[in-house]
Amino acid sequence: MNPAIESYPLEQRPPSLPPIHSVKLTVNGTETELQIAPWTSLLDALREYMNLTGTKKGCDHGQCGACTVLVNGKRINSCLTLAIMQEDAEITTIEGLASTGGGLHPLQTSFIERDAFQCGYCTPGQICSAVGLMNEGKAKTTADIRELMSGNICRCGAYTNIVDAIEDVMNQKNA
Ligand code: FES
Ligand code: FES
């Protein structure tokens, strides 16, 4: 946070400074109270105020999917929602997908096995989106996976291996 903003007690804040609100977020099972401007996006709250930098900022306006997280099990672009709107939600980021014992999520393992990334910038969003896709249960075919993952852009063009990685986990689940 801007130290100039932080140093003012709320009651003494000059009108030129943005208002600060107390917002409680539950992220990866832990509740945290943040003092943030009401227009702070969930993405910025995660990255700038909670140090959860696994969630990436690509476009910051809903075009790339790099910022995908799970809210109550559903995938959303965290750049398109305000943190204050998610106070009663269970938010899961890439940092929270591994099991409590530290084992990787099956999709994380599969992305490694299938070599489904190059620079890795899009990968947290791809994996969170794939978890959401599987929760939705609508993808039945390879073409469905391609279509339903089309909101997640990969500038490195790792699409073929990303789809293979997701399909492997879906097949394991259905076996
Ligand atoms: S950073 Fe949110 S969709 Fe691109
Ligand atoms: S792995 Fe580089 S953008 Fe997807």
TrEMBL record:
2Fe-2S ferredoxin-type domain location: 21-97
CDD domains: fer2
Entries under InterPro entries matching the protein: 2Fe-2S-bd, 2Fe-2S-bd_dom_sf, 2Fe-2S_ferredoxin-like_sf, 2Fe-2S_ferredoxin-type, 2Fe2S_fd_BS, Aldehyde_Oxdr_Iron-Sulfur, Beta-grasp_dom_sf
Highest taxon of the lineage: Bacteria
UniProt keyword list: Iron, Metal-binding, Oxidoreductase
Protein name: (2Fe-2S)-binding protein
Organism: Spirosoma flavum
